[in-house]
Design brief:
The structure is a homodimer.
Chain A (H helix, E strand, L loop, with lengths): L7 H17 L5 H8 L4 H13 L3 E3 L7 E3 L1 H6 L1 H4 L4 E4 L14 E5 L12 E4 L15 E6 L8 E6 L2 E10 L2 E5 L8 E4 L6 E11 L5
Parallel strand pairs in A: 3-5
Antiparallel strand pairs in A: 1-2, 3-4, 5-6, 6-11, 7-8, 7-11, 8-9, 9-10
Helix pairs in contact in A: 2-3
The structure holds a DNA duplex.
Chain lengths: 213, 213
Amino acid sequence: MTQDNLTKRQREILNFISEHIDREGFPPTRNELCEYFGFRSPNAAESHLKALDRKGVIQLGRGRSRGITLTAMARASLPAAGGRTPLPLVGRVAAGSPVLAEENIENEYRFDPALFSPRPHYLLRVQGLSMRDAGILDGDLLAVHRTPEARNGQIVVARIDDEVTVKRFQRDGQRVSLLPENPDFEPIVVDLAQQELAIEGLGVGVIRSHLTG
Amino acid sequence: MTQDNLTKRQREILNFISEHIDREGFPPTRNELCEYFGFRSPNAAESHLKALDRKGVIQLGRGRSRGITLTAMARASLPAAGGRTPLPLVGRVAAGSPVLAEENIENEYRFDPALFSPRPHYLLRVQGLSMRDAGILDGDLLAVHRTPEARNGQIVVARIDDEVTVKRFQRDGQRVSLLPENPDFEPIVVDLAQQELAIEGLGVGVIRSHLTG
DNA sequence: TCGATGGCTGTAAATATATACAGAACATCG
DNA sequence: CGATGTTCTGTATATATTTACAGCCATCGA
């Protein structure tokens, strides 16, 4: 609501400034704004900047080239700059509680959403070695994208009888197999007609912070 | 070691540029450098910038005011500026080139420095399966902390004969073994008296963005 | 219907900035 | 020892950049 009094055009200008900073490492000049937006007069850019300054989303340094600073107000509304929402780290999931329940959250970490696709919603600390041969070890953080749907072969976070587990998904009609990636473990087979199975999400990435040694 | 050929003065200049960007949001002008360092001639600043450009830690945009861009090489050696500095992703390392040379940088990702310890300086894309049993697979990103020193058992990024490789480090007097974690691969044994071995850094974490499935 | 604001063109300067040229003193290294 | 690199002073200039002034047209709330 703070800067929703920005017009559509002013928002375009603001976005361009932010992107320019991301791309080049410094803000644009009036002329560079003109070039991008097709203005024939540098004053078109100047008056836009003045307006954005008046509305508090940027600050203009007088007499300084490229003296444009984005304020906190601007950053909060920009997709690229402010969009690094922290991901909660889910540790041991208490039986019966939702994965993302307050009591299960150990910590929060920010990182680039572009690293994983689709976008992860939380990190789950993996317990045990049942997925060892897929390179997922005890203590690893699994980046999880929340969705109730899974295709065969995908690595899923599943819940059976209030137990949360990470396995490879394999469906065959009414029969779902949760396959470990370690010969020391047995597949879990569920008949959907008899037993409940909830897919909590898909594994979209792995983060390991403690290398042995 | 790549940019350790920076002189003390040049490092001071580089630090000031980085701090200026953090503080003001854009790089300094020649005059601002002069003011800070007490130069009486703008050419003092100019020639320092030229030197930093030549050494690859900054890039100068010709004819652009404040046209100074920090390269990945610079960022890796600068103190972590509040986790805002992105980590460069190093892909295939061209033979003979420094790991952090511009040509080897594929991308840049920001994320929480608290995730790994010690602090990683860059991400290296792992090739091959020689560390499979340590849960490091082909295509994984290894978070690397730059240091020339390693202790036995640590996972290192090493360079032999212009080849960069990830292995487990084992030293025995003048003999260093680089141990794979996969029985299909043979250890690399180096006699330090006969062959050069450079430790580029320590593996401090793993990120995998593509799960099979 | 007036006044304020948004969104521009066009012109003109003041001044901020980059950058070349000509040194000088001092180190380092083959 | 000469070549090369570092770190500066000092001067000059082309140009990049900001920024004021004078307008034009449209929209919108009072």
